[in-house]
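Note to self: the last two entries modelled the partners one at a time, which told us nothing about the interface. This time every component goes in together.
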Amino acid sequence: MGVDLVVAASVLGVALVIGMATLGATIGQGIAVSRATEVIGKNPNAKKEVMSGLFLGLLMIVALMLFALAIAVILLWMNPFV
Amino acid sequence: MGVDLVVAASVLGVALVIGMATLGATIGQGIAVSRATEVIGKNPNAKKEVMSGLFLGLLMIVALMLFALAIAVILLWMNPFV
Amino acid sequence: MGVDLVVAASVLGVALVIGMATLGATIGQGIAVSRATEVIGKNPNAKKEVMSGLFLGLLMIVALMLFALAIAVILLWMNPFV
Amino acid sequence: MGVDLVVAASVLGVALVIGMATLGATIGQGIAVSRATEVIGKNPNAKKEVMSGLFLGLLMIVALMLFALAIAVILLWMNPFV
Amino acid sequence: MGVDLVVAASVLGVALVIGMATLGATIGQGIAVSRATEVIGKNPNAKKEVMSGLFLGLLMIVALMLFALAIAVILLWMNPFV
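The predicted structure of the combined assembly is written out below.
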């Protein structure tokens, strides 16, 4: 049963790390997008500047998810304990 | 019991990763939509610009859920440990 | 006991994925609706535009729940491990 | 013990899915109602429009709980594994 | 089974620490980006200053994640108990 317990924990861990990361990233992007739409509505002329700033920010958030993805990949295919 | 424990953890993991991702994505979209409706109410002329910016943002959020979906598919049909 | 453990995890997983998705979707819709009612109160003339934008957003949120429903259906009736 | 484990997980799952759904729906409706009462207080003339928009939104939230109820009914009376 | 239990807990711990860290960092970045886009919309001439301040802040948030990464690396490859 020994190794199986470690594998089970790894599988559950992959799900938790990606689940939590997606949870945060989607809420964070929602907050960023909400403010951007507000500003576009108030000042439609600034749409291009706002959208470019917004996408830079959204990409930063996606970049953070790479940490979580790296852990998921390590646990699934490069697990040092299995 | 060995492999079954891993499979049980995988199934539970699939549920957790999609559950958390949907939890975040729906709250995030709610926040984005709430601000967009506010701005449409204040400045109905800007509705087209606001809606196009909003849908770009909502699509970014849906795109993030693909990370979670990828993990779910891997755990269900390409599980490296089963 | 082997397969039963997997089935038990699947059943629990179905409940968790739909529970979390509903948790997020209802809070998200509540946030969106709250802001829409505010704007209708301030500017009743814009009610039609606001309601059409709001329903598009609410439908996007319901659409996200289809991810969770798909997982629930897969775990209940198309479980690859049972 | 086999089937009993599945039944125990189903019972726990029913409780979790309805519990989480109610948790979200009650918070979501609270947010929506709070903003609506605020706006009625500021602008009592708009009460009729605000209340009609609010009730549409609250019904959308209740509709989402039907997903959770469906899962609860399936797990209790149409459980494919018992 | 002794050591396996410790390893299983370590694996789960890695997932939890990175998952929670990403959860916080992404929401935090979303809040920062939202306010930055707002200010760019109000005063597009200040875009360069705002973006440079924003990126410093976002890098600080990423820097904080190094604490969580350090713990993950220690648990995976330098675990003192395994």
